[in-house]
Amino acid sequence: MPAVEHFPVGAPCWADLWTSDIEGSRAFYSALFGWAAQEPSEEFGGYFMFHREGAPIAGGMGDMGPDMPADDTWKIYLSTDDIAGVHDVLASHGAVAVTPTIPVADLGQNMVFTDPNGAVLGAWQPETFPGFATVEEHGAPSWFELFTRDYARALDFYREVFSWHTEVEGDSDEFRYSTLRHPEDSEQQLAGVMDASAFLPEGVPDYWSIYWDVDDVDVTVALARQLGGSLVDGPMDTPYGRMATVTDPTGAQFKLRTPPA
């Protein structure tokens, strides 16, 4: 797939790992996906990039001081052309800004927030850096999904704050799901929102999940376990490909997918 040069407003455009084991995570993902871990940047507080075939594919960060230990999670960022405007309306929509808007050299501006139901994510306003260099290839992201206890409220929030256009894919108690559609091509799906009220365990907040495409899910699961990761569920065949949920050695969870043939 050609390199990605632009993400529409509201689309997931980047992901980074907040890890309690920087060196272990750098080694794990490099071995799992064939990524190259770049050196941490002093200018950006130790933030580092993973590269895939020489181009940025994900970021990583360790503890942010003694009062902000890493929680071993992947965080997704949504693209915006008005990050200050997003920041200003969060509170009125029941969301909470975790950080102010922060300029990152000439790359863009970011911020972190929790949505009205407690899911943690970020916003990114690009300047010279749009985000993922590619998608839907081995070792690149292919899908992003919100699991929420308050489906209607979540959809309202993302429509109002990030200008999402959504389509209902299922509306039964067994499967209630909507997809974010590309603003210029309504056939192109960019992310999903799942009504998870029936199965999210007590005490587990709403969360976003990232899917990484791989050539062979079963082989990648076996490698993840060999490298110290764990299998959460799967692999299983679905209409959207063969999938599995795994964690890295610290417990950071993510999903794997091999697209349908």
Q: Can you walk me through this structure?
A:
A hairpin with a 3-residue loop joins β7 and β8. The radius of gyration is 17 Å and the shape is globular. The strands form two sheets. Strands 1, 2, 3, 4, 5, 6, 7, 8 and 9 form a nine-stranded mixed sheet that branches. The two termini are 16 Å apart. It has helices at 22-33, 83-89, 151-162, 217-226, and strands spanning 12-18, 36-37, 48-52, 55-61, 73-79, 96-97, 102-104, 108-114, 120-126, 141-148, 165-171, 176-182, 185-195, 207-213, 230-238, 241-247, 253-258. The mean pLDDT is 95. The protein folds into two domains: 12-126, 2,3-Dihydroxybiphenyl 1,2-Dioxygenase, domain 1 (Roll); 141-258, 2,3-Dihydroxybiphenyl 1,2-Dioxygenase, domain 1 (Roll). By secondary structure, the chain is of the alpha+beta class.
Rg (C-alpha, Å): 17 Å
Number of strands: 17
CATH superfamily of the largest domain: 2,3-Dihydroxybiphenyl 1,2-Dioxygenase, domain 1
Distance between the termini: 16 Å
Set out the fold topology:
Elements: E1 12-18, H1 22-33, E2 36-37, E3 48-52, E4 55-61, E5 73-79, H2 83-89, E6 96-97, E7 102-104, E8 108-114, E9 120-126, E10 141-148, H3 151-162, E11 165-171, E12 176-182, E13 185-195, E14 207-213, H4 217-226, E15 230-238, E16 241-247, E17 253-258
Parallel strand pairs: 1-4, 5-9, 10-13, 14-17
Antiparallel strand pairs: 1-5, 2-3, 3-4, 6-8, 7-8, 8-9, 10-14, 11-12, 12-13, 15-16, 16-17
